[in-house]
Amino acid sequence: MKRIQNLIINSFNHPLVNRVCVVNGLLVAGWLVSLSLPLAAHALPDFSDTGRSGNRVGGASRRGGCAAPEYPMMPFVPLGADYGGRTVSAQPTFWVYVPYVLDDESPVTFEINDENGNDIYRATFTPAFDAGVYGIQLPESVELEVGTYYDWYFLVYCNDPLRQEVPSFAGGWIQRVDYPSGFEADDVETMTPVDQSRLFADNLLWYDALTPLGQALQANANDPMIRSTWEELLTLPSVQLDEFNQFPVVSCCEMSDTTNE
To answer: What CA–CA distance (Å, rounded) separates 180 from 214?
Structure first.
């Protein structure tokens, strides 16, 4: 794991990767419907309040055999929160924009590590998909612990089936937390994806706010309400993923229940 961290540190030279923004704001329900209002009139969820201090790794970089894309591979996490966020899920979904067309000559590795760099889960697979935004959900055999920080990585070995070159990569951090006071998990399950996203966003639970929208777009990419809510979430000042709103959310892969190489 130290090898991956050493590759990532000081490698984020793309202008879309090096931005950080801090916006102070009140959390209010229904913020998505009023994003056209001035910030002073209607404050927005501020994920920068959840930023992780200390030694961390996050962002994206292009290396190895991958061609230089117009937009870099990018973890879908708030840039203003140091490339990460919180979840209440034991098996959350991790979202990443992949700018490459991949085949069986370009394996992908997804891995997640604890704060000490120990592998919690790692799977390598050979996908066959076009460029787009993909969600990778942890299998049921893996369970994140409440209160613990983890680092995650999505590594692409373009035209490198033996994984001998330095990969292109995207990554961030995640922390599992308890459900906020007053939350009822069963009630959340009955909500629409938009209402789920708004509720989780108002409680600064990034991965849980993004996932219902991403899953809904995988099923119905033309739903205007889901699409607009997704775009507004990515446009938040503490998120700063505006440029990636244009890309489709597509199905990727099911992760194995066993850690493997």
So the answer is: 23
Tell me which residue has tokens 């308890």: 178
C-alpha to C-alpha distance for 210 and 236, rounded to whole angstroms = 12
* pTM of the model as a whole: 0.81
Residue 236 — φ and ψ, nearest 5°?
Answer: -55, 140
Q: Which amino acid is at 7?
A: L
Buried b (16+ CB within 10 A) or exposed e, 97-119: bbbbebeeebbbbbbbbeeeeee
Q: Where are the beta strands (DSSP E) in 115-251?
A: 119-125, 132-137, 149-156, 168-176
Structure-block tokens of residue 64: 């190895």
Chain segment 162-185, per-residue pLDDT in tens: 998 889 999 999 999 999 888 877
Query: Quick one: which of 100, 119, 102, 118 has its CA closest to 110?
Result: 119
DSSP class per residue in 46-73? -GGGGPPPSS---EEE--TT----SS--
